Amino acid sequence: MTAILGISAYYHDSAAAVLVDGNIISAAQEERFSRRKHDPRFPEQAIRFCLDQAGLSISDLDAVTYYEKPLLTFERLLETYIGASPRGGRSFVAAMQTWLKEKLFLKRTIQQKLQTMAGDGQAIPPLLFSEHHLSHAAAAFFPSPFASSAVLCMDGVGEWATTSAWMGTGNEIKPIWELSFPHSLGLLYSAFTFYCGFKVNSGEYKLMGLAPYGEPKYVETIKNNLIDIKNDGTFRLNLKFFKFHRGFRMTSQRFHALFGQPPRDPESDLKPFHMDLAASIQVVTEDIVLALARSLHEETGAKNLCLAGGVALNCVANGRLLREGPFDNIWIQPASGDAGSALGAALVTWHQHFNQTRTPSPRDAMHGTYLGPAFSNQDICSYLESQNIPFQSQNDEQLFNSVATLLDEGKVVGWFNGRMEFGPRSLGARSILGDPRNQDMQSVMNLKIKYRESFRPFAPAVLADHVQNQFELDQSSPYMLIVAPVKKELCTPMTQEQDQLFGIDKLNVPRSSLPAVTHVDYSARVQTVHAETNPRFHGLISAFHTRTGCPTLVNTSFNVRGEPIVCTPEDAYRCFMRTEMDVLVLENQILLKEEQPKASQSDNTWMQDFELD
Fold first, then answer.
1. Full-model pTM
2. Alpha helices in 479-553, H assignment, sequence order
3. How far apart are CA 45 and CA 157, in angstroms?
4. CA-to-CA distance for 372 and 28, rounded, in angstroms?
5. Burial, 561: exposed, middle or buried (Cβ in 10 Å; 0-12, 13-18, 19+)?
6. How far is the C-alpha of 533 from the C-alpha of 531, rounded, in Å?
7. Of the candidates 201, 244, 292, 188, which has an alpha carbon nearest to the alpha carbon of residue 76?
8. Which residues are paired to 486 by β-bridges?
9. Does the pLDDT value for residue 427 go beyond 50?
10. Each residue of 2-58: pLDDT tens digit?
11. What strand order describes the sheet that includes 523-529?
């Protein structure tokens, strides 16, 4: 038996993953245990879970692999600051203080933490180091269903690489080319995220969700001033407009002058200007992704493409790539950000360090990305009884029918089922569910359940066998990473008066027979639900389909704004009681809000526990 632990840490989204003989046994982000969103710290709790799930201790491991090479990152920082000197002096001092105290000695730090976890006198395994984009590429290709595939990785920055192309065949990934810092598509998108008042490294998906409310008026302004895009999709940024390479902010005064306004203050009103900017940078991003993919296809002749890196979470671009791109098949790593690189680092070690063969799984090797903790009915009942919490236990058939009825009645349901998802999306293990036919469901869930911005769209979870009846999508999308148009026959045409509306005013106009999941551009971020990977979630939606004729539910993550997705039954009950959710399902236990004791915190002071994302 060969056991490998992969780790990502010390930037954002720390995580751990364990392989045994090449099989993915467990993977989880530290934030789910620490309850600190995007937690960058050493993932001790995630490691303990992953090892416990595999029945292993630290001393049982054959290798531990960190997801990147810190010294190369340090080299990049030094060269960048020297090149920008004397500008950026304050941020250089701040960065060097962190590096000289901590990050420059990461090997020793990680070894010490592993030794503490193992205990005195216990042997710890060799510590290996992958490279940032190699870890991304490995997380994309090795779990994919393809024997060979082109691989495209796009993010902010690794050690030096910001965009990289690879060819995966068998158990090998070979580099083809890369673009280097500071010329980064991820950082360009993050610059607009910052400028529009959202938080970098967490608010990019908000910018994507805001884009359909606006018009892409600034596409040519961006292309003529901020970025030089070649025919093959490669690009160079005009660094005069940015400060991420030499300061604490993403954008420069020249950037602000170009668009005629200062950056939006967080939580202030969104204006049509910000919506137009979001629409514009979204179009530019999609154009670059499509051009890069076409060049990679021409260069490799590959039929298949794998994607990873933070930009691969841009599901609107993924949808266009699927519809308009040159590849026959696309597979996207569900944990495409840095958390997934913990898994990639372990896979690099298994296949390329230990030179182990690879047999692709027909579906993929991610087990639906349900790789986190699960809790038994006995565990849950013991917790509920110890807290004198009222509940009923039902068998699967009773439960599915009961919950389907409640959803049909307009109730909002917290659904806690099986192993927690690995990655940023809730996929029916830690989800909040609603009826997509209910016109008020989007605003209710945004404002009374999630406590988040009203413009944010929700995703449909649809039975895989029915996806083509609901959406313009002819393949599976199990990880909610592809946006597709709603079927035309389900759409409601806009009246002439409605067509004149702009921005948030569009939100209250129902656009289809699935208004709660139809975005203002008639699109939806689709999750196909498969009995093979999540039979209980599939069973619930099937019961709803039998009752209503609708094979789709609204699915959003089980948390409130700023909170990590819930991990334990205690997390789920706390979130249930703090919001206006109507029903909580913990495996086979059903809890009705009306039967619960009055919440101990009836005001919203608890929101201060979480920093807004």
1. 0.93
2. 496-499, 535-548
3. 27
4. 6
5. middle
6. 6
7. 244
8. 471
9. yes
10. 999 999 999 889 999 999 999 999 999 999 999 999 999 999 999 999 999 999 999
11. 392-393, 589-592, 583-586, 413-416, 430-434, 552-557, 459-463, 523-529, 482-485
